[in-house]
Amino acid sequence: MEKITLESKPREERGRKTNKGRREGLVPAVIYGQGMEPESLWIDALALKRLLKKSGESVIINLVTDGGKGRNVIIHEMQKKAVDEKFLHVDFYQVNMSEKIDSEIKLEFIGESEAVKAFGGILVKSLDKVEVTCLPADLPSRIDVDISAIKTFDDHILVKDLKVSGKVEIKDDPETVVALVTPPRSEEELEQLSEKVEEDVTKVEGVVKPARAGEVPAEEEPKK
Fold it and tell me: Is residue 163 part of a domain?
């Protein structure tokens, strides 16, 4: 599999003191693994962004610290700001290349479904990633899902249909649906749905349905 290099440098700052580094374009990180003490590091935010754009999160990284010997790691966890998605923190896990690991792999939906193109169906993606187990060197950066296999509303793609190397085992239930196409709603169904929503809203406490022209709300009806 693809392996790329990422530079890092030791970090002594902790807690709020890391904010200064963030403002300078650095990301606080930690590396840990079996048989090693966790180490705090700085990563260049721009270099990390380029790495993710090119290869995604599921990739073996040759993490080099201060020009020294690189270590094989994977991204175990990554935290971002909700507003602007700037990196807050990254956890790297050092892997043993001779031992299998578990990892979540992103699904990449490709192709075009005839059920969508010709019949106006709606593509439903039930999963966006699956968990796999394999040796680090066999870890795929993504798994392609070709939706052109969905030609009718009766067709669907299951986990067992995903194409992966024989060296990679998908741990999700093989019968789990990954993607399917549902028929478009008819005008009658949309109208019924709209009526149901309107009816349900009037049942919410404190919500009063507006009266139509010439109609007197029940609580204001004149007494006989």
Answer: yes
Q: Parallel, antiparallel, or unpaired: how do β-strands 3-10 and 60-65 relate?
A: parallel
Helix (H, G, I), strand (E, B) or coil at 188: helix
Q: Is the pTM of this model over 0.90?
A: no
Query: In Å, how far from its chain's centre is CA 70?
Result: 28
- The token pair at 195 is 């009526």
Contact 41, 8 (CB under 8 A): yes
69-98: pLDDT as tens digits? 899 999 999 999 888 888 999 999 999 999
Q: CA 197 from chain center: how many Å?
A: 31
Domain annotation covers residue 221: no
Find out whether 98 and 132 touch, Cβ atoms under 8 Å.
no
Q: Do the domain assignments include residue 212?
A: no
Longest dimension (CA), the chain: 93
Q: How many whole angstroms separate alpha carbon 143 and alpha carbon 108?
A: 6
Q: What is the SS3 assignment for 182?
A: strand
1/104 Cα distance (integer angstroms)? 16
- Which residues span the domain enclosing 16? 3-95
